[in-house]
């Protein structure tokens, strides 16, 4: 049994008739949660996969046996306190959870939250049970600081303010620096600062906010965030009617041009490169705060006024469409600025009498008053999926109210970086409960992320979560009082509660499961409105959707925040060392939910393991493809699929959503404009976009992708790209292959350059003079000329394999036994004849000998490990020696290593690059050297849990 701190205080609360009754739902009466778990000892060793150097080592750490190696590694390296190798160093998850939970329980008792000592003990057990079973997690600062000698900072998100005075501007630098030093990020709006087109009282001209951004950017780039190596997380906002708005919009795009010029001159301009510090404005996300007035002016093609900061007078007028175009062009070129929709944000503001919402935290999910903070926690949605693939409404509701209670208690003992932030947070008690694993949940339930069913389910869950949180907030207000700023904002706060309720009433469930969730949400919102009238509310805000990068790994989540699944294949660390490729475990569960038989599931999973996607998977119905759509890959979700999901859940969040809408490199400025315009019309509070390969400082996955990026950049810079033709020698090596596809006979002759690379093909099908023969002659000439002008053979192979038309069926080629068309056969044969193994393997093309070897050894190449792929997959959870991945493919290393050297994939992002032959545009982790993957509006490393800027 655990100790309950200060029972006298709890007894006093009971004597006054107040205090919360805590229901025991998850834990067992008389049994401590730790005693229900099998614990095991593990050694955590972390190396930099690029250099091979050991960056961390702690042996004998204790974790539940069902926690993955990845989760235990990240918790050990990130959250255990004390110097490694000393007796003060934490060495068990029990110590970490006790350090946090006992602090929360003690504060809850001291501040009168619990009706009896028994309720306090139940609270402690329930919270412990949820944490060790990975049902939720607090944000990282809680694990860093709570229960230690450090200041008890629990918030990850801060909003600062700056006024039009040198004293305020210098104080901004100071406050931001201390926040960065503590490992957190901050955002602020610079629109109060006079523009460079306005006069100072002394008669001179003002510097303008963009000028002062330089000093703040230098500070952020100098201070190591949290004492680590990642850059600071920072948001800068400027109102669209500020006279310096065009300079602000174009600032980062101009710097990106400078980066390209320096890169081409030989300087190291990658993210974290030694020369990147010579350019400015790279340490912040920039956002323009647009109004409904401006967006309507864009629609109507009207003029828009830019106003002085001191008296609101019109400084100049601009064409709204022209300014909107400049915003979109800059975002297309360098991913900044994003947009924040001011009127929408403030229409859902519960405290307008105190002040407007002018800014956000760095990832745009926390939007509240200036000089405020928010502590976050996220629920793992997959934990609430029953065995019959329905959502457990009751357990989800109970978990939400318990976690929300704990989050509010933390404000009672928390420390803050400035007194102004501390006062605002204590007065308004902003909380940010959210969730992770939405993408995995929808897939497991057989719902497409970009489908009406998927959006309806996500909306219902979000509505239930926020409704249960505000209902609990009203219950806590009856016990410990409403937040201090409630009285002056009561009417506005209750108006927003009715807006949430009305949005919930407009939901139209499409399935039995989301109907059950929606009915529960209806009841919650009815209680919110009624209890709020009587009790008020303990918290000014309740919910938002954060990136959940590091804590997502702590909970063993497949997907982060609101994100869809990243890819259908993932990279899994093995207990005892090593790693291997597996297909996401959500996939077979989804297939069973959709009605596929075990042998069909096995065949589809095997196909996905080889190809990385579901297109043409055996037995899989095309109408089910959408269930398996992911963020990247062959069936990557379209940009509006992301926007529509955000729009579905936004009406049920107090704050906003951390998410970036990813676009392919081929996307146009017009597409960016459409996303920004549709986001406004759909009621989003903020939108950010990222076009693939738009930033130089994002290392790409392979040389081919780098070459493609250079071509794109040349087009952007209006430099004509003029390919040259490499003709074949007069006398060259040739190969003639006869083939049969479903009884149709044909001949293919291929000619090669002196280096053995393919330079021409001739196809003979049908009788001479027939239409088919003529078409094949023309096709052969077109492909041959393309090859001689430098089109890679692998490009043709990726485009023409899996092309389906008659004749299709059995062939007489032992290496290509089945073909979906003559084109499918021809380019598979060419790949086998002319492409190296690494390139063929990335496209899923193997010879008969290689496939036989895979059946016998589990690898297409000779490996030491024995056993087939199924046996290796069954062994992956048990302690063992490192195993080679069944499809562990080699790729060329980056430019710093000789081309002959090769390295294996170490993360899901790298694995997907190998399978698909395309690049994932993400930075390399500065801690362990592996490629990161997107998480919300930042990036997270699967190897060590580091993030690119979000806690």
TrEMBL record:
Keywords: Cobalamin, Cobalt, Disulfide bond, DNA synthesis, Nucleotide-binding, Oxidoreductase. Residues 729-833 form the TSCPD domain. Residues 43-134 form the Ribonucleotide reductase class II vitamin B12-dependent N-terminal domain. One of its GO terms (molecular function) is ribonucleoside-diphosphate reductase activity, thioredoxin disulfide as acceptor. Pfam families: Ribonuc_red_2_N, Ribonuc_red_lgC, TSCPD. CDD domains: RNR_II_dimer. It is an enzyme of class 1 (oxidoreductase). Its EC number is 1.17.4.1. Belongs to the ribonucleoside diphosphate reductase class-2 family. Catalyzes the reduction of ribonucleotides to deoxyribonucleotides. May function to provide a pool of deoxyribonucleotide precursors for DNA repair during oxygen limitation and/or for immediate growth after restoration of oxygen. This is Vitamin B12-dependent ribonucleotide reductase.
